[in-house]
Every structure is written in structure tokens, then in C-alpha cells.
Please model this.
Amino acid sequence: MRDIGWSAATPTIDRESIVPIYQQIYEDLRDAILAGALPEFSRLPPERALAGRLGVNRSTVVHAYRELAADGLIEQRVGSGSRVARSAADGQRDRSAHVPWWITLPPWQIGSFPTVLGELASPQQGERIAFIQGVPPLEPSPLEELNASFARAGALSDMLTYGDSEGWLPLRQAVTQRMHRRGARVDVADVLMLTGSTQGITLVAQSLAEPGDEIIVEAPTYPGALQIFQIAGLRALGVAVDDEGIRVDHVEAILRSRRPRFIYTMPSLHNPTGVTMSAQRRERLTLLARRARVPIVEDDPYGELVQPASQPLVGRSPEDVVYISSFSKTIAPSLRLGWLVAPRTIFERLLLRKQSYDMATSSYVQAAVSDYLSRAYDEHLVKLREELSVRRAIALRAIEEYWPATMRVRRGGGGFYLWATTPREVRARAVLDAAERLGAAFLFGEAFYPLSGGEHSFRLAITTVSREQLPEGIRRIGEAIVAVRDARIAQR
Model:
């Protein structure tokens, strides 16, 4: 048997990570064992000793060791402590029969903040006032008219079949007509219906680039897209966003020396800042991309909500833009229905990859939404725009009343979100911890950045909190900001 020094068995933990500390300890030791850094029979530090070295509770280490033992990676005996199990080390592929098969799986990419998308999708629970989900408000509700549209769709004879992979033709025609009204002269043959716009981002990430390729993204940007890009192994280069949208001069500087596979941008009611890209920036960006021969991926789920309307980038440069949009933000996310528009040169590539995912998007849902578009959608959009404007005014008034003057909030723009920045002495994660104790929550800024940044920023989604609760939730966050600021001052 071989005893080794404990230094080889001392995990590294990140106290600011959203991954629980016991899980970090478990994963660090598991990787060391499977890589052979901790050979079989190696003695692990006693639970109390490791807890003292890491500055954590003994129960945290106990939890991590139990996970390792459950996986068959270590053996625990009273009086002799914990040791690496036989045949669990040295990176062997033929492991002991009691080691679960999933332990030997190859590593995979899950993104920097793997739980963020789950938070975005999970419903609000309990008394907490959560400014997290970016979904349409409960009012105005499309449900009555949508129910009627689904009933009419259910009477159609071909609703139980797969349908065309490109999508239900009447809906593709309706989408094409709406895009024409916004100044994008696309052809119905270039429209591909999606099972949610997230599918479109995934199709693009896997079809236009390979692992290791560089892409340009906004910083900050939609965390769901960042996670998709990280899973695909793409290297995102962040470009700042100001009051007119992405800094095109920064994009130009990157393109002088690098050749990214594509530029990902959200030009209308940008998530998370709420900014809409100016017409001048739109023209400069599409011209620059055309000259550099780098395509643009335009993510436009909020485009129908912009007032006054802005022409999509695909309308300016249809041969150089892959356009993605969704009905999740204007009707309901549960529909899981979106679409993309792509140049003929790559349409087939995207279509074939979509077919490998789901064969076709639900014909029943497509038929119902097509009916809804023709009957009630435009009226619903008018009401939704009005509601967003009212909510934004309520939120900004509450911020003016309850937050310290040192807080910066982007007041221009519109849409579902407010983007806030704390003073340098206050970190947004600390504010989130304090706010959760007071019964409020939001999304911290780091999740919106590809590499680093956002430590002093956070996003408020103002659509899932009722009008009545908006001021109270903002008041609680303001109380948390003051508490963290005062604690920092007291430490000086």
C-alpha cells in the first residue's frame, strides 16, 4: 500500500461559484483519481483535517467523500480513514465492476453557469419576488383567442402527421409577410420553422463553426446563447454594447487581425440592456461584415415590440445574415415555436441538421399560431407594448425612490429588462445574496459575459413580477444594496 502526502488531495474551491462547495470538492478529487494523480490505495486527508485546510464545515467534506464512495472511487473504513479504491485510479478504462459506467464517460462542456437556463425556465415559487424570467407578462393574456385558434387547428385533417421539415407552409407565408412589413424582403423558401429559437442558435453554432473557432458576441449578451456556444466548443470574443448597440468600431478592430466564423448580435431590445441598435450602426455592421466575408447571426425575439419599428439586419444584407426569431416573447414561451431565415447557400445545411434533431416542428402548434396571427396578434402586440411601457415607468420610479444615487441604471431603450450597475466597492453577487435573504432575486451580471466581466452588474426582468409587487421588489433590492455598501465601508 502507498500513502501519499495530503497536498495531492487538496481540492481547489471557488467560493463565488454557483456550484456547491461539496460538489467542487467531489469533482476535484474524482478528476484526480481518474487521472491517476491519486493512485489506488492513496490515503485521503481525514474529513476534519481537510475541512480545516479548506475553511469549510466538516459536513461539507463528509458529503463530498460520501459521493466518492457511492461512485466506488474511494473506500471508507472506521479507524483507517478514506483511501482510493482498487482499480479506480491510474486512468484505467477497465474499472472495477462496482464503479458506475457514467464515471468513465469522456468530459463534456456545460458552460460557465450551467444552472442559469434552468432558472430562466423554472416558475416563480413561494413569497420571493423574482426578477429572473424573461417571459411576457400575464396581462395582456393571449389565452382566450389562442384557445380558439387551437380549436380551429384541431379540426384540420392533417394535424396528426409530422409535416414538412421546413414548417407548415401557411405559417411560413404569414411570417414572410410580417417580415416584409418590417422591411425585410425575404422569400418563403428561405424560412425554416423551429422548435423554439434556442434550436436556431444551436443549429447555427453547430453548422457554421467547429470546436475551437472564434466568434464575436456582444458583452453583455443572452446567457443561453453563451452556453450553447460553450457547449459547441466555440471561443467567444466579447464586444461592448453602448446606447446605440454593439460597438462596431471594436468589431472592425477585431476583423483586422482575426477571422471569426460569425458575429452574434441582438440588435432590437437587446438582452440584457434593452438597447436598440441605431440605424447608422446597423448599416455599418452589415457593410463591415459583407466586406470581411463574415456572416451575422441576428437574434431578434423582441423585434416586433420596438417602437418605432427598426428594419432587421437581414433586410439590409440578406446574403450575409442568418435571422432567428421566436413567438416566445410576444405570445408564450410554452409554444416552443420560432423560425430562422437563411441564405440559400446554407439553408440546406441547417435544414438537414434540424431534421436530425426533431424531424419537424409540431404542425398542430404551427397551425394554431398561424390562425392566431391572422386574427388577434396585431391587437395583442399593441397591448403588450403598452404594458411594457407602463411597467418600465413603475420600475424606474421605484428605483429613483429606493436605490442609492450611486447606482447606474440604463434608462433608455425598452423591453423586458433593466440593466443595473453597482459602484466599484459593491459586487452584484453580494447584493444578490443579501436580496435573497430579504425575499427578492435577479440574475447576476457574470452570466451575461463570455469570458470575464459583469461583477458589478445585474439584470432585472420586469415582466413576471406583478405591477403591485414591482416597487416592493425593487425596494428590497435597494435595501440589499445599502446593506452591502455599508458593510464594505465598515471593513475599511
Notes: Confidence is low (pLDDT under 50) at residues 1-6, 88-96. Residues 29 and 184 are 54 Å apart (CA to CA). The longest strand covers residues 235-242.
